[in-house]
Amino acid sequence: MTTEVRVPTLGESVTEATVATWFKKPGEAVAIDEMLCELETDKVTVEVPSPIAGTLSEIVAAEGETVGVNALLAQIAEGAGATAAAPASPEAAPAPAPEPEPTTTTSDSPRDPEDAPSAQKLMAENNLSRDAVAGTGKDGRVMKEDVLKALTAPKAADAPKPAPRAPVAVEDSAREERVKMTRLRQTIARRLKEAQNTAAMLTTYNEVDMTGVMELRNEYKALFEKKHGVKLGFMSFFTKACVHALREVPDVNAEIDGDTVVYKNYVHMGVAVGTPTGLVVPVLRNADQMGFSEVEKGIAALGLKARDGKLSMADMQGGSFTISNGGVYGSLMSSPILNPPQSGILGMHKIQDRPVAINGQVVIRPMMYLALSYDHRIVDGKGAVTFLVRIKEALEDPRRLLMDL
Questions:
Q1: Known catalytic residue at 244
Q2: Position 88 in a domain
Q3: Based on the structure, what is the number of domains in the chain?
């Protein structure tokens, strides 16, 4: 008796994955819950365990293949003594099963929602493809109003095709290496370009004197670690300062949904983390309800999971604002790109001693440049500057966080 191994549910909005690595070969014994393969989605990596103990009799989806949810990955022969099945002779090999008709609907392929009859008629009359209409009804059902909106919408210009690669000399070609982009890298490229094409993105800058934060941190870091079991870093100060500023400028914590603005009475803080496979943004949920120790513990846990490739889909979804710390890599100044559909992202940078004028005297202070990129469609310049100034004030005098000033 054989058991099928299928693609598990990949998470919200994720419908397909790429088979990255098979850990077992056909004919090898597997234990229950032993990892069989690794799937790479456009957000996270998913491991597929063996549902039973037995022998891997067949691999249906090879490495590099793209598979959908519930697609067949492999077959496992039950029992420790089972072996891979092979036909005795070509004549004895079973004939391949006929492929199902494309129009056939099975239990594995749920039926698409039925569009409104008036919408179907209008699409037929105007020779409009179903794929060209965004349904707003229940379960994505297309309504008559959706078709009318699609018909009156201005025609988008065809996306420009990428320019062909310039010719390469034969001696150079032999020294080049072509590596297919991972799904994560493709998604990063697509989402960042979409952010530039969709949002009216603008960046405003400021600088902050980190003396107050550094003195407070040095004074209490030993006691903080002893009591809470986690080191006191800079991220908790920045997270708390952002929460403080977001309360005063809620537009930065909002997003655009069609022709409406969604204001969020919570702060799910995205923290950009660089990993060997690319940039990921795990989310610290309800950061506005956390103290310094909870923020530090939460960020440390997310960073560890990101480094080990253990982030789940839930860890990556729902962020309302993002912090990106390029300073850990030595960046002195940069303009971060928005993480759609969010309306704001704060870029932190390297702390560097610089001469500054204070009370008419030139002194050396640890300074950091801050950059806030925001969607100008929803956030006005005044709001963006106010937001960044509030962060600067809170960091230069951390007591303001305690007094909610």
A1: no
A2: no
A3: 2
Could you tell me which residues are beta bridge partners of residue 67? Answer: 17
Rounded CA separation 182/295 (Å): 31
Query: What does the pLDDT look like over 67-94, one tens digit per residue?
Result: 887 888 888 888 654 444 444 334 444 4
Task: Name the nearest CA neighbour of 4 among 45, 40, 58, 44.
Answer: 58
Task: Name the packing angle between helices 381-396 and 211-228 (round to 10°).
Answer: 70
What does the DSSP 8-state code read for residue 35?
E
Least confident range of 75-89, 261-275, 282-296: 75-89
Count how many residues are written for the chain: 405
Q: In a 3-state reduction of DSSP, which class is residue 75?
A: strand
CATH classification of the domain holding 370: 3.30.559.10
Distance CA(52)–CA(31), nearest Å, equals: 7
Q: Which of 33, 108, 112, 380 is catalytic?
A: 380
| Final residue before a domain boundary, out of 81, 97, 127 | 81
Rounded distance between C-alpha atoms, residue 265 and residue 186, angstroms: 33
Which of 33, 108, 112, 376 is catalytic? The answer is 376
Q: Is 380 known to be catalytic? A: yes
Write the DSSP string, 367-387. EEEEEEEEETTTS-HHHHHHH
pLDDT band (50, 70, 90) for residue 148: confident
Q: Give the domain-ending residue among 81, 107, 135.
A: 81
pLDDT at residue 89, rounded to an integer? 39
Q: Which domain holds residue 60?
A: 2-81
Q: Are 384 and 371 in contact (CB under 8 A)?
A: no
Within-domain flag for 89 = no
